[in-house]
Structures are given as C-alpha cells and as structure tokens.
C-alpha cells in the first residue's frame, strides 16, 4: 500500500488500527512517528471514544488530536458484510493489525488470531487489552486507573497516611502502548526472515507489574510491603524533593562521588566522613537526618540559586516544572519536543514531539493533523480498487 | 556470535550494553526477554552502580538482580588499550551498542557514533541519556527524579496544596528505556533491508514530555496550567478512587454506556438523565457532586462487595493493591508475571515476568540469573578467539 508521508525506519509498513482511547492509539502514534502508515478503523457514527473527551476546540477533541496525529480514518461496521469485505481487503495488504478489545471480542467477529493467521499468514496481530487474552480476568475491561490501582503503582505513590494518589499521567495505558510497540517492531524484524506474523498479547495490568521494578525485589528480599514514599527514592539517598527559601528543588545524588560533590557544594564536605552518611545504605538508613541537614542549608536561598550552584558542581538537580514551564524549557524546545499541527477544524494544535531521535531521519516540529471521522474513506477505497486491478 | 538461550524474535541479535542503573539496563532486559543476547560491559572493580544499591541478599543487590537477568558480564576499562582491543573485537561482531553516558562521553573515548559508524556500518548505536545528545543540557547528568520534576509529571501528581509527590516507580527511567527499545527494534527491522545501522538518541526528559499526553493538549486548548489531580482523571468522570466502608475502590466508567451501567448497579438509574451527569463533559464539570452522590452509596458497604456488584455489571473497577497483593493476584500469576531465577549467590529471586507475550514463543516463569561482575570474561574471550580463527 502507499507509504506514509512521514520519513522513518518503518516506511512501507501499514498498520490497521482498531483501537480506541489511549493505550492502542498511543502505540499506533509511536509507530506512525517512526514512518508506519496507520489506518484507523473507527465505529461509524461516533468513532474513537476519545473524540468525545474534552477539552474541545471548535468541537474537535484536543485529547483525540494529541494522540492521533498523522493517522488516516475510515469508519467500518465490522458486523456489516459490505464493511467486512473492505476490512478483509485491507487485511490482505496490511502488515500489522492492532486492537484493544476485551479478550474474546475479535473471536466473536470471527477475526481471532487463529482465523486471521490462516488466511493472512504475513499479518502481525497485536492485542493491547486491559488484562490480556488469557487468565480469569480476560473478558473484563480496564481503564488506566483500574490497573494503576490493581497493579500496585498507587500503593507506592503519595504520602504515608495520606489519601490514594493517582500517577498524574496515564501510565496504565502508556506503558502497555510502549510494550506493544516493542513487540510489533520485534515481530516485524523477525518476519523479514521468516515471512510469518505472530500474535502479540500485551495487557495493561502485566505492564504495570513490569513497571514495579525494584519494589518487587524490595518486597521479596525483605518481606516488607513497600508503602508510598512521598517525594523520595526508596533505596537511593539523597534522591528527593527538598524545600528551599521559595519552593522546592530535586536533588539526585545517585552514588558516593555525586554525594561528595553535593556535600562540598553545600559547604559541608565533612558529611562524606560522617558515619551516618558515608555510603548509600548509610544515607538511606538515616535519610531523615540527612534531609534535615541539607534543608538547613537549602532554606537559606532560593531554588534558582541552588540550581546554579549544583549545576556547577555537576550534581544532578532540577526544578519541579509545571506544563507551561516544560513547554518553554530551552532543552525541551531544542530537542523538537514541542510539536504542532495545523488542524483544518481546530486550527493550530500543540503536542509533544517524537522522543525517538534517529540519525539521518528528519524530526519535524510540524506534524500532520489527526483525521476527522471517516475522512479517508474515498481515498482508501480508490487505492484498494487500483491495487486489485494491478 | 552465539545466540541467547532465551527463545524469541530477537534470537541472533547481540547487544553490547555499557549502561548502568536503570533506564539502559531496563531497555537491555526487555531486549534480552525477546531473545537478544546482551553482553553487559562493566567498569572493572565496581561494575554497574546499581550493584551497590540495597536491599542485598548474601551481599548481592536485589535491585541489580531484578533488572539484569539473563545478561552476561565482562569488565572492561575503555581507557586501557588491551581492553579497548577486546571491545572493538566485540563491536565488529555486534548488532547493537547501547550506552547511557552524558552526551560527549563516548566521543572522548573516541567511540562516538560518527567514528563507530565508519568502522562498523552495521552497528546500531543507541544512546539513552538524561537530556539527549543535543541542546543546552546535553552534558548534564540526570536521574529519575530530576526528569520527573523537570518533565512535568510531578506537577500533575499528588493532591492540590499538598507536598511534592514522586511517581512511586521510576517512570523517568522506564519510559526512556522503552522508547529506546522501540527505536532499536525499528532500526533492526530497517537494517535487514539496508544493511546500515543508525544512531538512536533518546532522552529521559524528552520521554517525560511524551508521557504528558493530554496535559499538553489541555493546557494548549484552555491556557490553564494543569495541577495535581489527587486520585481522579482530568477529563473523564467518574474515573477515580472512591471511599467505601472499609477502604477504597477504583471506578472507571469511561463512556456514557458504562456510566449508565454504573448508575443502575448503584441503584440510581436516574443519574443518566440528571442534567449534571448526562454526558462526560457534564460529569467532569460536576465531579464533586457526582463523587458525593456515589460515595453516599459506596460508604454503605465494603470494597469486596462493590467489586462483585460492579464486575457483574461490567463496570471497570478494581482494588488498590499493595505489592504483596499484586504478586498473589490470580490474573497476574496466570499470565506468568511473577517470575524467578535461581541465583548462585543469593538463592531464589522473585521478579516481574515479561509483559510482551508472543504466540509460539515460550514464556517461562523460570528466568536466567543476573551475572556476577566479569563472570563471562573467559567464555567471551574464548568465543572471540574461536570466531577470529574461523
């Protein structure tokens, strides 16, 4: 099929994308940013649920626009014979099918992997669901917050004794979307040798478990159930937010050398020989005392001052930026991470750029806009007709 | 070179891994789980910094073991001529070089991409650094908390007016590790056609910006700087943690159909025609009133009761599990997400499984252990000698 207009290593790959809301669409956006052509197949009438999620600009969802840039849209009713015929003509030409239904839904449509793999052995079938396509919860639906709660990350986030705290971005969806994108790319790589597609089955809950990283090791090693840690790291010290005269500063001195540089920069080189602070395990055991000692210094001046002092000493540190400050950060801007698109309905839209920078591949800040529902129907059908005549 | 003992789509791929601590090692673990052979090249004497991070089991770091399973280790001093010669013999045979130094460090060693690409055009060079290899901060180091603060996610996490709150897992590292893994796989796919490697330059800060998803759209659409949201979603309602008689429950009714099912299950079908709650934008505008109405019902019974009621009504919901509960969850266990390894020093170690499930690829709960420092030196040198004689 026609290639994407975006240059990248996945040029020539066509993805049929049945997904809605966030995990699947985010995965497809990553693939599109790498040069895949993504054809979004939406429910007629309403389309992707996220088209109904605000805020809206001239009636078009900013949420939808920010994660569907550069995709094409065709509305197909997969229960209607005429639309099923179009879908199957697309399947015969596509490299990847991406879906995020509950387990069993595609089988009910007679589009389960076993059926599709027999008819279209080249097709890579990627499922990105709440709980995966096996196990006791396989037919249940999930949303981000459900797996943030069930998967343990909420038990680690927030302050001891405080109310439940959601991670402020939808990592339940984003993690699953990225693991799915990795699986798809690995299967594309393998297929170049074997000619055969595989099924990829990623679940949001599994992805949260994979994101627990050292919390599992800590629990398994000590038998203590990890709790919320506020604004510090569990096993590396100092690695936290500290109070200054006018707000906060993040300081992350991840090894003994950095701690020595920090101690010197704050005017207390003797900390490195203090038995409470000599090694990282010492500092972690005495984190409250170290915090008090550090804040006694830090509270005497403002965040900007300490950022300058610690940067000069090569100690990793930073401010707590809000979204407006992030978008204005000179590093973020210089890396083309503030991108935008000219939407025919909503006008100019700001969004995050592509974080995967590749040598020899353009990294434009101008991105193609997110499609209107069914916008590309005529063009896609004409393309299929032309391909069938060839 | 020899293939990995773990079956997967990346069988035959060899990764040289210079990375330390989390973002890079996590990326390399994902590649190893997919069947790549990962040779970890460590600093002689101390090795990966995370070998010094507790908790320890028989002196071996549980943190290190949980993210370095199945890798091989060789200690090389990249400033010493003899070790540089070994490194270069490995580069000539490898598919991927992965590093997470500050920008400029590899150039000082004369191993920058430009030099390596000329000598080893097949080599894919992946850099996963704090700020990337361009821009004003390129020579600065970062750790997870620094980019959580600078990248905006901390401004969205926690409770309004409350203290700064870190996401309880290191998403600053994990996000960058996954984007790097995606870039590596895409470059491997492309290389099968072109024979040429590329440089992949992923930064932790960029990855945090890419994780802001709808927060950027919200700010750009409304001009309002998003703040912390406690335990609810910004634009989807009801999508939050709610109080019950004995704790909390997560309920995520992401569209009007699910909200109708929820209203009925809680005994208030009239909510769907209440003008405050009719559509998702209505519910978001009146989220405090909806929360009060829902909690008036939910506080009359315990979490387990409501989970059962809402599951029957197919409303996405879940508990807030701690790490112990996550590891005992029947779905998590049935998906092989609780894996372990028999470590020769530390004994049996529990860790997260591989969330990327692939048809036709085994998904063992028994995983190979994480290497001791320099454990594979003799075997790797013998292999190189043998290959050079061929």
Write up what this structure looks like.
The structure is a homodimer of 390-residue chains. Chain A is α/β, with parallel strands linked by helices. The first copy, chain A, has 2 domains: 14-211 and 333-389, 3-Layer(aba) Sandwich (Rossmann fold), CATH 3.40.50.10540; 239-322, formyl-coa transferase, domain 3. Helix content of chain A is 39%, strand content 16%. The first copy, chain A, contains 17 helices and 14 strands. In chain A, a hairpin with a 2-residue loop joins β3 (56-57) and β4. In chain A, α1 packs across α8 and α8 packs across α9. The longest helix of chain A is centred in the middle third of the chain and has 24 residues, at 171-194.
Give a quick set of tags describing it.
three-stranded antiparallel β-sheet; Rossmann fold; alpha/beta; 14 strands; homodimer; six-stranded parallel β-sheet; 39% helix; formyl-coa transferase, domain 3; 390 residues
Summarize the entry for a quick read:
2 copies of one chain form a homodimer. Chain A contains 17 helices and 14 strands.
CATH architecture label name of the largest domain in chain A: 3-Layer(aba) Sandwich
**Total count of domains of chain A:** 2
Q: How many E-type strands of chain A?
A: 14
Largest interface: A-B, 157 and 157 residues
How would you summarize the topology of this molecule?
Two copies of one chain form a homodimer.
Chain A: E1 14-17, H1 23-33, E2 37-42, E3 56-57, E4 60-61, H2 62-67, E5 72-75, H3 81-93, E6 96-99, H4 105-108, H5 113-119, E7 124-129, H6 144-150, H7 153-156, H8 171-194, E8 199-203, H9 204-210, H10 214-222, E9 239-244, E10 247-252, H11 256-265, H12 280-285, H13 287-298, H14 303-312, E11 317-318, H15 323-328, H16 330-334, E12 338-343, E13 347-352, E14 357-358, H17 377-389
Parallel strand pairs in A: 1-2, 1-6, 2-5, 6-7, 7-8
Antiparallel strand pairs in A: 3-4, 9-10, 10-11, 12-13
Helix pairs in contact in A: 1-8, 8-9
């Amino acid at each position: 099929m026609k290639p994407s207009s975006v240059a990248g290593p996945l040029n020539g790959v066509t993805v049929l994308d049945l997904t809605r809301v966030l995990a699947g669409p985010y995965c497809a956006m990553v693939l599109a940013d790498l040069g895949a052509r993504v054809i979004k197949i939406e429910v007629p009438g309403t389309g992707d649920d996220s088209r109904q999620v605000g805020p809206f600009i001239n009636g078009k969802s900013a949420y939808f626009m920010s994660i569907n840039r550069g995709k094409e849209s065709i509305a197909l009713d997969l229960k209607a014979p005429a639309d099923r015929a179009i879908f199957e003509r697309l399947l015969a030409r596509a490299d990847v099918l991406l879906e995020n239904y509950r387990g069993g839904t595609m089988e009910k449509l007679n589009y389960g992997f076993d059926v599709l793999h027999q008819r279209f052995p080249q097709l890579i079938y990627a499922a990105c669901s709440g709980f995966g396509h096996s196990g006791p919860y396989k037919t249940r639906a999930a949303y981000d917050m459900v797996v943030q709660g069930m998967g343990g990350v909420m038990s680690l986030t927030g302050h001891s004794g405080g109310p439940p705290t959601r991670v402020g971005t939808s990592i339940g969806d984003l993690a699953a979307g990225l693991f799915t994108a990795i699986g798809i790319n690995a299967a594309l790589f393998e297929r170049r040798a074997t000619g055969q597609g595989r099924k990829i089955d990623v679940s949001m809950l599994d992805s949260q478990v994979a994101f627990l990283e050292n919390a599992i090791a800590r629990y398994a090693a000590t038998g203590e159930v990890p709790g919320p840690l506020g604004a510090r790291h569990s096993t590396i010290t100092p690695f936290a937010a500290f109070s200054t005269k006018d707000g906060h500063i993040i300081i992350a001195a991840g090894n003994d050398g950095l701690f020595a540089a920090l101690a010197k920069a704050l005017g207390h080189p003797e900390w490195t020989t203090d038995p409470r602070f000599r090694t990282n395990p010492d500092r972690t055991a005495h984190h409250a005392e170290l915090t008090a000692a550090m804040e006694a210094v830090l509270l005497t001046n403002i965040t900007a001052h300490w950022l300058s002092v610690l940067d000069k000493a090569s100690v990793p540190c930073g401010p707590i930026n809000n979204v407006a400050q992030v978008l204005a950060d000179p590093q973020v801007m210089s890396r083309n991470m503030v991108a935008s698109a000219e939407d025919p309905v909503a006008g100019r839209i700001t969004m995050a750029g592509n974080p995967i920078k590749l040598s020899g591949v353009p990294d434009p800040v101008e991105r193609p806009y997110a499609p209107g529902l069914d916008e590309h129907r005529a063009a896609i059908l004409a393309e299929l007709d032309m391909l069938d005549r060839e």
